[in-house]
Amino acid sequence: MDRQIDELHRRAATRPEVIGLAGGLPALDLMPRAELARALAEVAASREALQYGWPEGDARLRTWIASRLATRGADVAPERVIVTAGAQQALAIAGALLATRTIAVGDATYPGALAALAGAGARIVASGGDARYLIEAVSNPHGVAPVDREELLATDGTLIVDEAYVELRFDGRVPRPLLADAPDRVWHVGTISKTISPGLRIGWLVPPPAHHAAALEVKRAADLQTSSVAQAALARLIATLDYDALLARARAVYAARARILVAALRRYLPSLRFAEPEGGMAVWLETEDHGDEIALVRTALEEGVMFDPGSAFRPVARSSLALRLGYATAPPGRLAEGIRRLALALARWRA
Amino acid sequence: MDRQIDELHRRAATRPEVIGLAGGLPALDLMPRAELARALAEVAASREALQYGWPEGDARLRTWIASRLATRGADVAPERVIVTAGAQQALAIAGALLATRTIAVGDATYPGALAALAGAGARIVASGGDARYLIEAVSNPHGVAPVDREELLATDGTLIVDEAYVELRFDGRVPRPLLADAPDRVWHVGTISKTISPGLRIGWLVPPPAHHAAALEVKRAADLQTSSVAQAALARLIATLDYDALLARARAVYAARARILVAALRRYLPSLRFAEPEGGMAVWLETEDHGDEIALVRTALEEGVMFDPGSAFRPVARSSLALRLGYATAPPGRLAEGIRRLALALARWRA
Questions:
Q1: Chain A residues whose beta carbon lies within 8 Å of the beta carbon of residue B37
Q2: pLDDT tens sequence across B114-154
Q3: Which of B9, B52, B83 to mutate to test the interface with A (most CBs of A within 10 A)?
Q4: Given an 8 Å threshold on Cβ–Cβ distance, is A198 in contact with B50?
Q5: In B87-142, where do the E strands start and end?
Q6: Which member of A13, A114, B243, B320 has the lowest number of beta carbons within 10 Å of its beta carbon?
Q7: Is B199–A115 a contact, with Cβ atoms under 8 angstroms apart?
Q8: What is the enclosing helix (H) or strand (E) of B185?
Q9: How far apart are CA B131 and CA B125, in angstroms?
């Protein structure tokens, strides 16, 4: 990550008057806090929470993950699931085993995926390549569905399919897992970070069967296993949680916040191009501006608003600026004011 | 890890009648379970436990780690400490940044270090090389202090210093951190897994200052950050825990269990060579036997005892067999019976 941007983000985080439109943090008030606290309290002193476990993770979690995939049409044995430290570690494990590949990621994508895949040694390109990374159903940062699944399935390349936002489309449509139709070449990645809590650091990887043993050894070498405490608490939580009801509520709340942000953009920045988000937590703005991106972030911070500058999402640098604006964590009543401040910052920066 | 050994370990773990002398698990009854449960319950619903945090980890933990190093003579700013998912991840991060090196590890060492360092690409040797990995104060698997610190400091190579057992010498002597005397070439690795709980998956890395920024980026790419829940609970715990009293108790208990195991070895396997452990959780037995190691493990399992076969600890294969016998988790009253069964297994296997 760019150190100057990192520094500005950290500065913004210490100033409560700054309206935060940066970061992929889910809304704290949508997390099942009371239920999770109860689950943690129940498992806290147990052997399963405090002792070492197996590298593949808790069998109850793997069964839950497999059963949710089965509901969507993918017949995956729990033995194929590896519990990881968030989707990020799943991407890092896939990256380690695809290090010799050229991976296409599109014009912009999740910066953590760029770091995980390139960090392992893979060559990252916008298009082409012999492997492809995509964020299913709701692309990050675009906020809309990625390319056509028929087109994807017509190719025969390796697919790294990140389902971080798959259940957070506002229309509630959850696609059939690509894993179901291309089991031998899909590296399936999922997480509860955007719905239950990112602080647990729990995600999963379903590698192609031929790579399962190698992926498990990479996981073991990386950190032995995912936190027993976090896994035990989550296993306890999902035994009673109505996860579909939680998802329905999150979709409704994020959709309402997205509408506020979109309306504010149309009011304060009517000339900027963007697609209305179909799900997730952010809007992606493409501008025809060129210039010093860090200066724009600094100016925005002076105006009291923070956003994610687009360059971090780009596999290949572009001279035109882009911005990702998140609506998940700022108070909804402050979102329009955040966009007003951003418009002021853009005007000052252009001048 | 060898799949057949892994399979036998898993089988042993499901059979309560098997006396377990395998694995590096600390004793559950020495963990501060009630205090940790209280700490978890207190933080469970908080923002700090459930939301994303910074990749370097919780500032209170980093301050605590730095202050304990300061007490031992190493002046380390908390800003230099990176909280990791156990010592294992600290080793993996060091490995990723030392991937072009040849790392000497001695005749036998912690298998997880071999996996983390070799997995990243480093060449692993027993001696020589331009870097060295050592387990300070109580070597694993040997159970005794590694080579002389004057000799180590006289060289100018990179040192990866794993302090997993550093505070678990039975004599209570905790050495001055090598970090204090060679700050620019020591990758310092620590953990609370052997004293508080491995299930939290919390360790730390203090990389040489010139590598700090790169190490933090590797950590971020690996899993974004260590579990917020685990970090928040540990930060709460250490605010009130008497950690030195906990260490003193652990030393006394492990020393007593070591004495039982040593006495049983002298009784049932008097011809085998071993060094009496000076700390930690295991005895390392070198034999003059040659033959099928997996068959020995299988025979031991039939006799109702499980151990760690030596080959997993070897950077370079040897034909003579070795065994690591742990005394931390089996009921103390069953340790002698475990060795009696092991002697039977060895006799059957030799026949």
A1: 41, 44-45
A2: 999 999 899 999 999 999 999 999 999 999 998 788 888 99
A3: B52
A4: yes
A5: 102-104, 123-125, 131-135
A6: B320
A7: no
A8: none
A9: 10
